[in-house]
Amino acid sequence: NESTKDIWQHRNKTPNHPTAPHIFSITNDAYDALMFSTKNQSILVSGESGAGKTVATKQCLSFLATVSGSKFRIEQKLLAAKPLLEAFGNAKTIRNNNSSRFGNWMQVFFDKKKSNLHGGRITTYLLERTRVVYQSPQERNFHIFYALCEDIECQERYEIGSIDQYRYFNSPSEEVSDIDNLDVIRDAMSELGFHDSVQEQVLRLTLSVLCLGNISFTKKSRGSTVASVEELEKAADLLEVTSTELMTCLTTRTLRTIDGNITGELNVSSARVACDSLAMALYSRLFRFLVEHVNQLLVGDEDVTESKFIGILDIFGFEIFENNSLEQLCINFCNEKLQQLFNFSTFTEEEQLYRSEGIAFTKVNFINNQPVLNLIEGQEAQGILPLLDDACKLGTATEANFLSQVVKRHKKNILFQTDRKRRFQTAMSFEISHYAGIVKYDATGFIAKNLDTLSMDIVSVMSRSTNGLLSELFPVKESRPARHIRTQSSRVKTITRQFREQLQNLMQTLTATDTRYIRCIKPNDQQLPNMFESAQCVEQLRCSGVFEAVAIKKTGYPFRYSHKAFACRFSCINSEHKYMTTSKDDTRSRVAEILDVSNQDFSDVQVGKSMVLYRAKEHRMLILLRNLALERIIPKVQAIIRGFLSRNYAFRIRRAEKEINNAMRSGKCDKIEAVLEKSRVDSYVFDYCPRNADVARQMLRDLREWERLDTLLIKIDEADIMDTSEGYQRMQQIYSEVCDLLETHTIKARLSPRNYYGHRSYLFPNFTEDQLDLKKDLKEWMAASRIGELEAELLKQVSSQLDKFELETLIKEAHKLQHKSELVKEGADLLHKLETLDSLASKSVQTVSRKGLEKVVDLADELCQEGGDIVEARALLALDTQAFLEQEYLRAKQVGDERRRIHREIRLLMEYKYSSEPDDANVEARRERLAHVISASGRSHRDFSIENIKNLRSRDSYAKSAGLLGLLRKGVFKKGMLMYTSKDIPTSLLVCAEEMYLLENGHEMTSSERSNKKERVKRFKNKALANFRNILEYCGEVKCEDPDGAARKILRRGIKAFEAGDDDLLVEMYLQMMKQLNNPVGRSEMTKPILDITNRFVDTFDSHRNGSSAYANALALMAMMVSVIPLSTKSSEYDPDDGSITMEDRVIVWMLNNMLTTQTKKYISSIHNVKYGGIPKRIQKIKKLRENFSRVRGKFSIADESELDDGPEQENEHLYLQRNT
């Protein structure tokens, strides 16, 4: 994909064509530095919340996973860990839709000797637990909760309600991330080795957090009790504890004293706090378990303590919210530490380096944030976090006392402010001036959040859960003696203390690495693409110290090497390799000589005491000179290495050929095999092997065959030949193997003189004449001991029994014994007939082929065979013609033989539903036959009439729609509804489905529904009237400049109706055509059949008066319609299940009964072609359609049934048959 293409573009970049700046380039530099140095690397991704740190981290991981690879798919597991941790640790905030609510330090370990991935480790910092129970307005909870609530399978299994039913949600479930898809999370867990049972436990515990939030409490006489028992039981079921225990631990608290335990009742607010504390503790411990499991999988059994690594830090961005608490203070404190590291590595270290090397430089002023760090964590100055720890140790201190201590120590600090009268809303607020801006904090809840303690009652209940994962998350600690209870708070390691220790370890690790920075800039606060607010971006760059870093890089020397490293890297520039300094230890002088011989201006290159420092301009020139030198040097080195490899390879080939020749002269298999294995040469340089290797391999195969033959002959010589079936079978097997070996090319050739392989001495195993005679005698004995018994059994089978299996066994045995006789020949003929009968019977019954069934019955009578398919064949032949045809139709449909099914369906329709003589010239005889067939099918002749179409408009309604003229001439309109007319019709001939529904249910519909239905009815009638107008235009009844255009409109209208599934419009169009063809005057005045309708009969409006011309044009238009437009959108089959008469039936019967043209069969064939072959992809020109109709053939009808006898063996796709109906 495009991402992989970009990765390899930055990985394999050409030296003289630098690529555009990208995160991949930074990661590639870190990867190269790790491979070519011993120092570990780190990449720090920083920026405000919503600036894109998470995406940048993903790109770094994707680059390392793509270019390095691993032995145990570590790179895939690293990539899979990211969506899992995002699902449980990321959430939507007002600044970011996928904000990381925890810090993430990911170490990617690499093998010492190779460059592939060796393992990984993830360290997380300060998960924002309070988000589980509270979110600010317009923010969401963690992604995993929404993924669970929106998954259909989880909704059904755990009876999960909608989002708005849970107390821990305060915003609608808008999908903001792919992490909301539970399938993605499950796939990541499976990739990371989570067993299905563990995945189930994780999801149950996550859902239990939501259920805990829905538990409500009510006041009672003493303390409180649970008000929502149903929610309590649901949470207890997910936690796999009893509801009684869960309610007790949430509404009571046990205090341990010297005198014993005291149980007290909790009020409603305290019970709510205990329930929320359990939810937060459960979720945070579950998140910690996921991280530990991932680390265990990434490291496995490998020892990564001494492996090199690249660390990627994706830490929370600087946060300024409307309500900032302890979490935001810790997050901003971490960003201050990282900013200090950036300042130290960019400014302080840079200045120290220049001073130590004795190089002049311009000092750059930068903002030092050490005073802010002293304010927050200073030990001597009693920082805010140490004072908070002291307050937690007392056990009785409050947030007010804590804040008063902070104000007392830092009221004169300009970075600290507590002026409540000016802007603060509460007395617990204070401000700190950070490097990124002033932040107002609320100290309410600082002590409770810092202690993070759960009552032992809750821990005890959770540890007794039958859910193994939950009991593991809440282990029961050993009880302490009562005398230690008073000092227990002093031993608790607070949250801030743990965080500071983790942060200190991280700083030490980062300091020991070669650090690279990715500074993410947020372009706007509206989270919109292609919107760049320059003032906001400049402010972020200024606060983060990027301007100062650029300034020191411009005035300083960003490229530096030690004297030895510079001389080693750029010594190739001196093409003569002649130096004035003879001592290799005097690298500083050698550096100066390299710069002098380059003939370039390197006056700005600073040669310090131990290092060479220079800027980008000199760096580009040095790299260019080095690349040009390497282009001259590398071909020479390649030539030398290739020459050495070729000479060494030729020496090994000659030595191998000599050893192979010696082994072949010995004639021993084991020696040849050993020397071939020894002389096998890897072909990674030259695709060549010893010339005599193939000959030696063939000789080894031949010798193996000779050894096997010798072993078999020894067995024959030693075998105990007895006149028993077991002995005979054993000797027969040995004899067969001997014969097979003697027929091989190798054995035959070696029975002739020696030197087959071109060697003087080829030692074969002895093959004596006595052994050959023994083989001959064995053959004669085997034949003599079996022939008499074989003849008797054959005679028995031929004369009476005719057991096919037994007869086949006897014939095969006779052929093996090379026994030939008249009895054997007769048995073989009978066996052939039996096999033919079985095959023909199975095939004919399967296809219901009459000719095949007749052959089966005749052959069965000849061989006196019955049973199985033969009985079924006789039963099929006993059926009458119609029943037999129906069996053929059903069997073809069952086996998927479309060719035969379509043919039988058409024949059944024509023979037993319409007429058996569709092309009979005698019209009266055809009508009588049609009436007879219709009455024989149980239907009356009127059933097929178009008058019986279900939704046909009544004649009264038709006349009424003509308005006043219809009232005056009502009888004329009623009589002429389905008769030819040269005028426009007043309304549609068919009542569409919407109009029918409106007539039947209009009184129950609302006014808007009735209006909608009436609009649809109006559109249908307009289409019908427009279609009839086009018919009149084409037939010459109405003056028209482009009659062919009118025909094209009709055909397009029909195709659109078919594609839209509008059966009403299709029926309306064909009804209109049958109305215009119901023209007695036109039929009677036609002096000859219409044998050629390739040209229009009427060309002018005035020439239609004779009537026959309009009738001829209507016939041509009907021909084009049946060639293009199907009669229905439903592919009906012969004899529908509901016994209904289809529109296709009515049209065909109408054609057979009313149309006088001898081309009726072409119309019916066209109907079948469109029905079974599909509508044409495009409409041809009208003239071309008329010409094609004169040559139309029935692709789906066959006159000669013999063509279908072999149908099942042909491909079912051959549907276009080449016979007329």
What is the residue-averaged pLDDT? 77
Question: How many DSSP helices?
Answer: 49
Quick one: how many beta strands?
A: 17
Q: Please indicate the percent range of residues in DSSP E strands (runs of 2 or more).
A: 5-15%
What attributes characterize this protein structure?
extended; 1221 residues; 17 strands; five-stranded mixed beta sheet; alpha+beta
What does this structure look like?
The chain is an alpha+beta fold and 1221 residues long. It is 57% helix and 7% strand. Strand 2 (90-91) and strand 3 form a beta hairpin. The radius of gyration is 49 Å and the shape is extended. The two termini are 57 Å apart.
Task: Set out the fold topology.
Elements: H1 2-11, H2 23-36, E1 41-47, H3 53-68, H4 74-89, E2 90-91, E3 99-100, E4 103-110, E5 117-125, H5 143-150, H6 152-158, H7 182-191, H8 196-213, E6 217-219, E7 224-226, H9 229-239, H10 243-251, E8 252-257, E9 260-265, H11 268-299, E10 308-314, H12 326-357, H13 370-377, H14 384-394, H15 399-410, E11 416-417, E12 429-434, E13 437-442, H16 446-451, H17 456-463, H18 468-473, H19 488-491, H20 495-511, E14 514-520, H21 534-543, H22 546-555, E15 559-562, H23 563-570, H24 587-597, E16 606-607, E17 611-614, H25 616-666, H26 669-678, H27 693-718, H28 725-742, H29 745-750, H30 769-801, H31 804-816, H32 822-847, H33 850-863, H34 869-877, H35 881-895, H36 898-914, H37 923-936, H38 955-960, H39 964-968, H40 970-975, H41 993-1001, H42 1007-1035, H43 1043-1060, H44 1063-1077, H45 1080-1085, H46 1108-1124, H47 1143-1154, H48 1160-1173, H49 1182-1190
Helix pairs in contact: 1-3, 2-3, 3-4, 4-7, 4-11, 8-9, 8-11, 12-13, 12-20, 14-15, 23-24, 25-26, 26-27, 27-28, 28-30, 30-31, 30-32, 31-32, 32-33, 32-34, 33-34, 35-36, 36-37, 42-43, 42-44, 43-44, 43-46, 44-46, 46-48, 46-49, 47-48
